[in-house]
Design brief:
The chain has 414 residues and is an alpha+beta fold. The chain is built from 15 helices and 10 strands. The longest helix has 43 residues.
């Protein structure tokens, strides 16, 4: 025990005597360890952060009917049971129908509004999302065509009734242009009288425009209503045409989810939105490669700085080394002392690097992703061990030079 204490006192005394140079070495190790700790923390947290950012661009998986069974809300809910709830950001089922507003053919998309809001956070709604019955969200382009705005009332007609009325009007115009006899026109009207009567009796369903939707995409040509309102409007419910899922997961995890969903439910055909998943994978791969490259360069520079400092220390202590060897000190004891100094610096620098590295990673995360990160306990031993190893490698050449000192030449003053 006394021998170990003596060895530790020798090392600390040597560091204190050479405090200016050792401070430079300690600073270099601490900076290297800070970059290592910070970038490794970011490296492992970036997929989560980037995944959250990419979820703002919409769904990354679609559920479509395979044609082998009923595709309805129960089918979609069954498929959602495969996905980990912690990874599921949002799910929006959709049903599309052709309707008429002022005899204008329009695509109506029925969905779960809360699910659509979560799955498509990039949607910009001027006004409010539909929250009550008979409220509708109108796309910006369609709103301009219909001349409606937030708070306007519209009448939505579903089915062939309005189509029949519009077809009759078009037939009359065509007949006039071709000089068809009035008798033929009347006969044509008589054939469709039943359909016309139905159209007149069909008043449609009144809706209030709660908001105008801006997406920059095809959604601006649709109206969006709730699934329950669509069931009332059409007189039938249950059927779905698609479901959009936003899942916080890597491309491999998404493929695993898709395979599992397809295996468990033959009525569902899951598909990945490649423009989102591939872009996310590409960005993450390049960013992680950049983090690895920067970390390697910083550690190399740290090693060079420590090696240079230790070389200078050995040069300044040549007389001390020569005297010790003349008194009978072995090369192993000299190696142990210098390596002990270096490894102690590496350990202290690694601990400082863990502290400053986490602060660095937190600052980057808040400024870039606007969210905090959690401290990973595994970073502490990894950073310290890597710092000690880098310092040990940097000390190999200086220590070798220390053992090559010739006591006779040094004591002569040469």
């Amino acid at each position: 025990m006394k021998k170990q204490k003596m060895f530790f006192r020798m090392i600390t005394a040597a560091l204190i005597r050479q405090h200016s140079r050792m401070l430079v070495a300690l600073l270099a190790i601490a900076v290297g360890a800070t970059i290592l700790s910070g970038l490794v923390t970011i490296y492992y947290d970036v997929p989560r952060q980037m995944g959250a950012q990419f979820r703002n661009y919409g769904a990354n998986m679609l559920l479509l009917p395979s044609g082998e069974g009923e595709f309805n809300e129960a089918t979609v809910n069954n498929a959602l049971g495969v996905v980990n709830k912690e990874n599921l950001v949002g799910a929006a089922p959709y049903r599309y129908e052709s309707v008429f507003i002022n005899e204008q053919p329009v695509i109506a998309a029925a969905t779960n509004m809360d699910g659509a809001k979560a799955a498509s956070p990039y949607w910009l709604v001027n006004g409010n999302w539909p929250a009550a019955e008979n409220e509708v969200l109108v796309g910006k382009s369609l709103a301009a065509v219909l001349g409606v705005k937030e708070g306007s009332s519209i009448n939505v007609v579903y089915g062939e009734e309005s189509r029949a009325a519009k077809t009759e009007a078009d037939a009359e115009k065509t007949a006039e242009k071709k000089d068809i006899k009035e008798k033929d026109i009347k006969e044509n009207k008589a054939e469709k009288s039943n359909e016309t009567d139905v159209s007149e009796e069909k008043e449609g369903m009144p809706f209030t425009v709660s908001g105008i939707l801006e997406t920059g995409g095809s959604e601006e040509d649709y109206i969006f209503i709730s699934l329950s309102d669509m069931a009332v409007l059409t007189g039938k419910g249950g059927r779905l045409d698609a479901a959009e899922l936003s899942i916080s997961a890597s491309q491999d995890e998404l493929k695993a989810y898709a395979d599992k969903i397809s295996a468990q439910n033959s009525a569902v055909s899951p598909r990945l939105v490649k423009r989102v998943t591939q872009s996310e994978t590409t960005v993450l791969t390049k960013l992680q490669a950049l983090v690895f490259l920067v970390t390697a360069v910083v550690l190399l520079l740290t090693m060079i700085c420590v090696a240079t400092t230790m070389m200078a220390v050995v040069a300044e202590r040549r007389k001390e080394i020569g005297l010790r060897k003349a008194l009978g000190a072995s090369d192993s004891s000299i190696i142990a002392e210098f390596m002990g100094e270096g490894l102690l610096l590496g350990g202290v620098g690694g601990l400082l690097g863990v502290i400053f590295g986490f602060a660095f990673a937190q600052a980057v995360s808040m400024n870039v992703f606007n969210s905090s990160i959690n401290f990973r306990p595994l970073i502490l031993p990894v950073t310290v061990i890597v710092s000690v190893l880098v310092t040990g490698l940097a000390c190999l050449l200086p220590v070798r030079n220390a053992t090559d000192v010739d006591p006779a030449l040094v004591l002569k003053g040469e």
